[in-house]
Amino acid sequence: MTDPDPAPAELVHFYSYATGVSLELPVGFEQVAHDDGSATYAVLGDDDVTPVPGTQLLVQVVATLPDDATDTDRDEAVDGLATALADRPGTPVEQAELQVDDERVVLLTTRGDDATTVLSAAAVTPHRLVSVTAVARDGDVLAAHRAAVESIRWVGL
Amino acid sequence: MGGPVSTASLETAGPDWVSLTAADLLVSMRVPRGWEATAPDRTTIAAAGPDGVSLSVQRGVPEEPGHDWFVEFARAVPAQLQDDVPGFELIETERFRLSSAYADVLLVAARRDDGLTGAVGPTAQVQAYVWAGDRRMYVVAGSTPAVHEARDLPVLRAVVHSLRLLPPRG
Prior knowledge:
heterodimer; A: alpha+beta; Protein Transport Mog1p, Chain A; 7-stranded antiparallel sheet; 3-stranded antiparallel sheet; 10 strands; B: alpha+beta; 18% helix; globular
């Protein structure tokens, strides 16, 4: 017997034309800001306006790559971005390499002095160098941020 | 007559699957690596794999406005298919929502053998209807030769579950 009116999915899909990134976050997250090259997602507080601290995830196009960029150019770009992300304040916890939607992603986890955990990711698509920076105050949000990175599709429209 | 296929969806995020985006249709999905995609027209994208398995996604509009129409449509479709399509054998239906814009999905898995001789012969099929508001609806039609039902029906279902709808450019 099928449900005549199924419950909403547990994840919400977001796509930003500014970043070309498609990703999924748990229900409750919203896109809270965007500009020509970035989109920010977070859980909103009771006022439905202010993001809850420790939930934000920022996707940002850091650079645009030329059409004739080689694989070496792309690898160097993502390595350079990963180095810059690793140089941010905090205590490094983990660095890993993933394949997300057929693209190489360098993932870094850093613990801040204020009990936050910052998840950073550097990725390069055929034409865009992309960073993801997410700040979490608890493990559930951190897990949601990591799952969001792993859910990315580099749609690129 | 075989038993029902598993309702568990295959994991499509892994390296054996790739993303396929149709900009004109505002849709993204995951298909097995190696499937070949074509765009027969501006409202349809199709993908085909080995041994005759294939799937198409066509964009249209609902016949009537309002989600209530789709609820009634989804309730009626399985019986209509059984009544109207020669050789149609329902395996199971599934209702779920996508992560995109609360899109509501009816998925029908079935076997079809109309007794006609032909190159294809009996098939196992997935038909899905994706309601995404008053102005956007998708029909997904997947098919594979019946001999590959056990292998391919879970794949076709997983493709439907992987659908993400992109917002119109604002």
